[in-house]
Design a protein that fits this description.
216 residues, alpha+beta, four-stranded mixed sheet, two-stranded antiparallel ribbon, 54% helix, globular
């Protein structure tokens, strides 16, 4: 079974949803047969290239009154063992982060890509790291098992740019309009940070359906 997760590393619900999916996967009997791949999506393609305090960015984009929304996210995140430091978080453009995520999958494999994504979530939401900065991205890459200098050289080039544009366009063509979106075996999509039990139910249903022989 292949599960494609469309997400953005500055999306808190993507972080929560990925954590819940991981919990479901740990309970799934055939978890070793599941391939998980992260696909790119940008919440704000026009986000600044130079990082700025998230609080400033949110006020500019949505106006005042976002505290209640953030509190709701914080409570859900805490339920999954995630600590979010909104005061330290930095708003930034995620194109380079997505390029690196694709590079990780292509050159190091899905397991390393998953470690990288988890590291990027942690860096952005808990550690106050600018995940648009090339040096910061290279450090997170190294922690995930990627050669730091190789990652830095890749990010400094224009490699992966066309690939990323194609992937973002493909997501739009598939109708991906919100994240997280989980696509199971290319035909069954689940949107949002669903409860762990829901993800486990979907895993079992997709497995059962794929086991039913088709009529000739």
């Amino acid at each position: 079974m292949k599960v494609e997760i469309y997400s953005d590393v500055v999306c808190p619900w993507c972080y929560v949803g990925e954590r819940r999916f991981e919990a479901a996967l740990a309970q799934f009997a055939d978890r070793e047969q599941v391939e998980v791949v992260f696909r790119p999506y940008q919440l704000d393609p026009n986000a600044p290239q130079t990082g700025l305090p998230l609080s400033t960015y949110l006020e500019r984009r949505f106006g005042k009154g976002v505290d209640e929304m953030l509190q709701h996210v914080t409570e859900n995140a805490a339920g999954e063992g995630i600590s979010i430091d909104w005061a330290a978080a930095i708003a930034t453009n995620t194109r380079n982060a997505h390029r690196l995520i694709q590079f990780a999958d292509r050159e190091y494999g899905a397991a390393t890509q998953r470690k990288l994504v988890d590291g990027l979530f942690l860096a952005h939401f808990t550690q106050g790291v600018d995940v648009g900065d090339m040096d910061a991205l290279s450090a997170v890459a190294e922690a995930a098992g990627i050669d730091r200098e190789r990652a830095r050289a890749y990010l400094a080039s224009d490699q992966g740019t066309a690939e990323l544009d194609d992937a973002l366009r493909e997501a739009a063509e598939l109708g991906i309009s919100s994240v997280p979106t989980f696509v199971f075996d290319g035909w069954f999509a689940v949107q949002g940070a669903q409860p762990t039990a829901t993800f486990l139910q979907v895993l079992n249903e997709v497995k059962a359906r794929s086991s039913v022989p088709t009529e000739q």
